[in-house]
Amino acid sequence: QVQLVESGGGLVQAGGSLRLSCAASGRSFSRYAMGWFRQAPGKEREFVAGISRSGDTYYADSVKGRFTISGDAAKNSVPLQMNSLKPEDTAVYYCAAKDFSVFGAIYSRPQEYGYWGQGTQVTVSS
Questions:
Q1: Residue 101's closest CA among 48, 58, 46?
Q2: Of 20, 23, 39, 75, which has the fewest CB atoms closer than 10 Å, so is most exposed?
Q3: What's the gap between Cα 28 and its chain centre?
Q4: Run of H or E residues at 65
Q5: Alpha carbon separation from 88 to 28, 39, 71 (Å, rounded)
Q6: Could you report the per-residue pLDDT of 73-99, keeping only the tens digit for each?
Q7: How many CB atoms lie within 10 A of CB 17?
Q8: Which H or E element spans position 22?
Q9: What is the rounded distance in angstroms from the CA atom of residue 100 to the CA atom of residue 30?
């Protein structure tokens, strides 16, 4: 099994940047398809970005061009760089891992992921 711990959240002004980290332990993240999701109060959890076992990436339209997901093998982590933040980006951000993924496939539905971190709060002020 893999354990996931997110960090890097906080309060930032609109237009600012944050870098979230998803530290994996127990197993290398490279054996999983990885994803970042977020959940705002009163809303469903939504897909933000994903990275496949082959390194392919995919983004929600709402963050495309502003957010970047990557894999850091040296640190066994999956960072999410967030630039040009908007108040509507305010949410709890979660890192997730999917085992037994198809090589090259990216998964955008929360129910497809079996492992989750505890989440980190991101608040963007206007």
A1: 58
A2: 75
A3: 16
A4: none
A5: 32, 11, 26
A6: 888 999 999 999 999 999 999 999 999
A7: 11
A8: strand 18-25
A9: 12
